[in-house]
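Hi C.,

You asked whether I'd gotten around to modeling the 443-residue construct. I have! Everything is below, sequence then structure, no commentary in between.
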Amino acid sequence: MMYVSPHEYLYDDAERWNPFDSSDDAGRLDSEESLEDARQSCRQLALTNEFAICGHENRISYVVGTGHQISVEAAPGSEISPRNLACAQNWIDDFILENDWFARQQEILRRKDRDGEAFLRFFVDQDGQTRVRFIEPEDVFTPEDVRHGDSSRDDLNLKNLRGKSGAANRCTVRFGVQTAPGDAESVQAFWVNGQFVPAREIQHRKANVDAAVPRGIPVFYPVRKNLHRAEKLLRNMSVVAEVQSAIAIIRKHQGGSRLGIENFAASNADLQTRNYGSFSSQRSNFYRQYTPGTILDTSAGVEYQFPVAAVDASRYILVLQAELRAIASRLCMPEFMLTSDASNANYSSTMIAEGPSVRMFERLQREMIREDSRLMKRVLLNGISAGKLSDEILTGVRIHIVPPKLSVRDRLEEVKADQILFELGAIGIDEIRARYSSVQKTT
């Protein structure tokens, strides 16, 4: 008779599944400490695991690519003057140049994948220009006095969050993120190194969690064990092959004594050395040089074996490929994007418009465009608040961002389709130029 536990589906490798921020002590991410442990383990993978590094770099290469083209255009129905439109474009271009936005886009995606989130803090100088700096995720946490309900400090900071009515209801603070009462998605502030920072000064980009969850989870967290196993398997394969290939020949002496074998080795050696490991014992090493094409002649009692011929790495490569496919499936990417081995894949058939990886990259590009658009609007608002830009820009412009191309299509057919759309007025010449440009505009 076989017994089946009704809780078997909750366990895998002796781990129990629990929701993020669960109150159950057995949960894996139920505290700031456990989230920090998960983040550190994935950071270690991003630093030392070759497959994780390749996955991170490929996601950056496809999602960010050569950089997103960011431009300012007149909003539909607006009558903004060409001068103000040009001023807004120059303001955005200066921001992109001063903040090295192409490199910062790459780091944003790397941080989101590696740490599960990226915190961007805004600093506005006296000229109204915005400077963006990163905040480390471990610096965002709930202070002890706030965690234990120190009402005096809570009320002090809530004065900065009063609405028009002046009411100061108690907020919720989890994982260093302060939200409105009863609304986990309305972020009011962050606690950075124990200091209260209003939400308007920080953009929090989180990944792999629901909207109501305060913090993100690293992209490789579900497959961290697969990455460790793949790395160990590759290491063990290499070590076994190295040991076996280092031994050129094994001679078996049938029925020979130890003294007889040593005399045989000494008489046939081309070179003899001694190891002085201790005063009481000395060990001799015998070497024999075999030139290419050497023919061995021996007595009937000696048998030669070549261990290199027994190395069969193909058995382990199949296991390694299975692990890599499991990791690649987490990223919705083909296996060759983790190994850089395209021998078993056709790029043109993988990166088509309907391919799973293309769909995933398009989603990630769309998410980055949405977050960058909000950031660029904030940059324009800072310029307007400082009196450097006209108030007309607030409602008269919209941010237009064009990501690099992903899918492989017939170039001639694409050009014809763009020509038809241009003649119909559906797209402009600037959008076509940005779509086919491979260099990020920096001036």
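If it helps when you're writing up: The first helix runs from residue 32 to 48.

Thanks,
B.
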